[in-house]
């Protein structure tokens, strides 16, 4: 399938599957693109998709970007998911250790150049792992941020050059938590402490009442995305 055919397929399927359930979209994705992976950050949306994928296609690869800067609660959530589902999460690490990054770019790069830090610790590792696949699944939702408002449930990802599936793009935050509660899912306990969106510890803070749900990410500058999603 050439690039034009993939783009046409994505457009057609985005229309066809707009009203499909997340499970139906996952099933279509894994059957059409067996060489597919799911990018898991262990947030609320992603534990929902872990559960769905285990029910629909438990052999599908699931990876996470280990930036070395995650909250301990995030690593603990990973370990609890491993224990429940017996998943062998694929760990993807940056080429530089935190010490090597500090030596090459100065201390606390996340403060001086947050985009550069994200590129080193997230974007480059993601580009590397996605180069091994034909498609990927993500947990992005349209109401998470203005930059995601136009996300389709099926897209051709021009940034990374593969098909992209967003099965719960149309869900609300209430939909996510309804599924979590009804299915008694494991989730990151930081969500109960006013952390709706959880990234690296240095760049994530609690969100106060009335603030935008993503106000806790890269607080104090105009950065709203780490660069994983265009």
From TrEMBL:
InterPro entries, per the entry: APS_reductase, PAPS/APS_Rdtase, PAPS_reduct_dom, Rossmann-like_a/b/a_fold
Keywords assigned: Cytoplasm, Iron, Iron-sulfur, Metal-binding, Oxidoreductase
Positions of the Phosphoadenosine phosphosulphate reductase domain: 36-205
Gene3D superfamilies cross-referenced by the UniProt entry: HUPs
SUPFAM superfamilies per the UniProt record, alphabetical: Adenine nucleotide alpha hydrolases-like
Active site: 226
Positions annotated to bind [4Fe-4S] cluster: 117-118, 200, 203
Compartments it resides in: Cytoplasm
Primary localization: cytoplasm
Region feature Disordered, mapped onto this chain: 211-230
Taxonomy of the source species: Bacteria, Bacillati, Bacillota, Bacilli, Bacillales
Role summary: Catalyzes the formation of sulfite from adenosine 5'-phosphosulfate (APS) using thioredoxin as an electron donor.
Superkingdom of origin: Bacteria
Cofactor info, note text: Binds 1 [4Fe-4S] cluster per subunit.
Protein family membership: Belongs to the PAPS reductase family. CysH subfamily.
Record-given protein name: Adenosine 5'-phosphosulfate reductase
Gene Ontology MF, one: phosphoadenylyl-sulfate reductase (thioredoxin) activity
Pathway, per record: Sulfur metabolism; hydrogen sulfide biosynthesis; sulfite from sulfate
EC number annotated for this UniProt entry: 1.8.4.10
Cofactor: [4Fe-4S] cluster
The reaction(s) this protein catalyses: [thioredoxin]-disulfide + sulfite + AMP + 2 H(+) = adenosine 5'-phosphosulfate + [thioredoxin]-dithiol
